[in-house]
Amino acid sequence: MNADDLLLFAQVIELSSFSKAAEKNNLTNSVVSKRITRLEKELGVALLYRTTRKLTLTEAGATLLEHAKTVKQAVLDGQEALSGYGDAISGNIRMSVPTISGRLVLADTIAEFCNLYPGINIEMNLNNRFVDLVEEGYDLVIRTGHLEDSSLIARHITDSQWVVCASPDYIQSKGRPFIPSDLVKHNCLKYTYQTSGATEWEFKGKDGDYIITVAGNFATDDASALRRATLGGRGIAYMPSVLVYDDIVAGDLVDIFPDLVAKKLGIYAVYPYTKQVPKKIQLLIEHIRDKYHSILHVF
């Protein structure tokens, strides 16, 4: 069986027309017809019922079509895999990233990637919900937490250590907690975007991890608002280090318990299942991974 004839057969069905398939492949109608007839003879079965108005698959034709689609996808996967070995990487990437990570970390990272590969166009949507990649047409999603949909592939990029931090002004005014239990005496800003743990802060102990229950007068589900309140000296916050690394390095925030915070969350690159990950997606994931690692090595 000729693979080209198999692909042509799939195109005829996809376009519901011999003439459209002929036009797409720069062939004559008679050549397309002869090649489909040749395929039927080689297989010893009829694949199509032909009338002047439409084409209808036989039972054998419907079975073969599924295999033809597999061959077609294998060809596309092969082309995609080899695209990175030519002179340039090109194409479009549609991705979704968490709002705060997009603003503080990934905006510049993605723009830098586009400069490295001018043939790539990236649409980056900021969204905290876990989007439906296939239904909504995303090529890549960056998320923290656990992956539940087994039809997707999640590549672990890194782990983001959480920190307890406050501004120098707050510490000067209210004093610095020396041990985690001191937090019960302080105004602790609550990050309610978490599924749990807004007031239960987790720490490392000699006998294992333990929880300190805190209280405070400000709560928000937006990490950007939490960061601004912390920078403004309103209280002590418990949040991912990746979101405040610039502030800590600059001295605008103080990492109060650098070796005691137990909580960390995995950061993942998530994409639809495919036998061959497109080269452009592989390169983008590596670029994002390198960026996160350059940030998180300071903690």
TrEMBL record:
CDD domains: PBP2_CrgA_like. The keyword Transcription applies. PROSITE patterns: HTH_LYSR (PS50931). It comes from the Bacteria. Keywords: DNA-binding, Transcription, Transcription regulation. SUPFAM superfamilies: Periplasmic binding protein-like II (SSF53850), Winged helix' DNA-binding domain (SSF46785). Gene3D superfamilies: 3.40.190.290, Winged helix-like DNA-binding domain superfamily/Winged helix DNA-binding domain (1.10.10.10). The keyword ATP-binding does not apply. InterPro entries: LysR-type_TF_proteobact-type (IPR058163), LysR_HTH_N (IPR000847), LysR_subst-bd (IPR005119), WH-like_DNA-bd_sf (IPR036388), WH_DNA-bd_sf (IPR036390). Residues 1-58 form the HTH lysR-type domain. Belongs to the LysR transcriptional regulatory family. PANTHER family: HTH-TYPE TRANSCRIPTIONAL ACTIVATOR TTDR-RELATED, HTH-TYPE TRANSCRIPTIONAL REGULATOR. This is LysR family transcriptional regulator.
